[in-house]
Design goal:
4 strands, four-stranded parallel β-sheet, 157 residues, alpha/beta
């Protein structure tokens, strides 16, 4: 499974050109209550892939969660369903695109978690100067993937 990272601008260019086949997309955007200068509509993947999950969350760190009325537990409540989505895409032999507004933080945090969980090389994203992985997104996705994996294992009777 290939995991790639895209910004909104780069993915919109790809959508108008040669969008790859057999991909699932995790698309992050800012919530509606965010900055007025930011586009809040999710990227439209209609006609390109049916395997899309949209996540509207703030691109914030652990230390400022309380300023948004959030805790680690309440931030990114979709993480468990995203983990299920990722496992489903992997089972179906699909590649994964992680996309956010600038292709630097939320998407790279998600991609790093996927790579670490399945291939133990998520550090490659943290080491790449182009990215600034959102660590809360990373930990939420990684923890959700680990929990999903544990649930899939049937204990002995």
């Amino acid at each position: 499974m290939n995991v790639s990272i895209y910004s909104r601008k780069a993915i919109e260019q790809l959508l108008s050109a040669n969008f790859p086949n057999n991909v699932a997309v995790i698309s992050f955007c800012d919530p509606v209550d965010c900055c007025k200068s930011v586009i809040h509509t999710p990227v439209d993947y209609t006609g390109k892939t049916d395997r899309v999950v949209h996540v509207a969350i703030h691109d914030i760190d652990l230390s400022v969660l309380p300023e948004f009325g959030l805790t680690y537990e309440t931030y990114f409540p979709e993480a468990d369903s995203v983990a299920e989505f990722i496992y489903s895409a992997k089972r179906d032999g699909m590649d994964i695109i992680c996309q956010c507004e600038y292709g630097e933080s939320r998407s790279s945090g998600c991609a790093a978690a996927i790579l670490e969980h399945f291939y133990k090389n998520g550090i490659s994203i943290f080491a790449d100067y182009r990215y600034y992985p959102n660590q809360v997104v990373y930990h939420k996705v990684f923890d959700a993937l680990e929990n999903y994996k544990r649930k899939m294992v049937v204990p002995y009777a």
